Amino acid sequence: MPRKNDTSNSASIAFITSSGLRGRQSVRATFKLSAACIEAISIVAAQLGIKQKSLFDHLAQDSESLNAIAREVQNAHVKAGNRVQKTYVISRQSLSLLDDISRAFNAPRDALVEFSVRRLLPVIDREQKKYEMRKAAYAGMRKHLSKGRQLLDEMIAQLGKEDPVVAKMASVMDTYTGAAKAVETFLERTQGIEDFDPEDFGRLEVHYDR
Which domain of life is it from (predicted)? Predict the structure, then answer.
């Protein structure tokens, strides 16, 4: 006797195609980008806790924005100066979209990526402000943690380590210490955003065929 969910499973499988699966495959793609562009990709991915591939795919699959950018840089050539060759792992579908739009508008693929990444500048601005607030919060945590340790030492001196109240306080401090360490690690991992200057994301040098 067929199970009740056989029909629903068959319907779900019907939406899975070989071309769709191939589109999700990861491929390596090399671009020549400005150092600021490369840094921006790294910073945003770190701040949001996502892989660079996911961020890159999100940008590359926004076909509406890519088409608008392509119209701006149609028949343009990117000047090679101050560009860095960088290889990213992205989905095959994202790479195909970039290539298709690049060919359709005769627009440099590198310029499509560069201008797409510039759309992240408002995100970076918000995250820079958050980073400063997180640093201030961490400074407060450290002061609070220091006072908590001092209190624990006083409790141990008065009641002894085996006292149940002291044991509870020690457990709280262990948890607090672990949380503070996790915050410190996060701030260290994302500190690149602190020195990022949007002004370094200079105007892309292109020249056009007339």
Answer: Bacteria
Using an 8 Å Cβ cutoff, are 117 and 41 in contact? Answer: yes
Residue 16 backbone zone (phi > 0: left; psi -120 to 50: alpha; other: beta): beta
117 closest CA partner among 60, 54, 67: 60
Helical spans, DSSP H, in 108-161:
109-118, 121-159
Indicate the residue type of 115: F
Output the tens digit of pLDDT for each of the chain's 210 residues. 545 555 444 444 444 444 444 446 889 999 999 888 898 999 899 888 889 888 888 888 888 888 998 998 887 777 766 788 999 999 999 999 999 999 999 999 998 998 888 888 888 899 899 999 999 999 999 999 999 999 999 999 999 999 999 999 999 999 999 999 999 999 999 888 888 887 776 555 655 554
- pTM for the model: 0.70
Q: Which amino acid appears at position 7 of this protein?
A: T
Q: Which residue has the tokens 């919060």?
A: 137
Asked if residue 31 lies in contact with residue 113, where contact means CB atoms within 8 angstroms, the answer is: yes
**CA distance readout (Å), 210 to 17, 103, 124, 172, 204:** 43, 18, 36, 70, 19
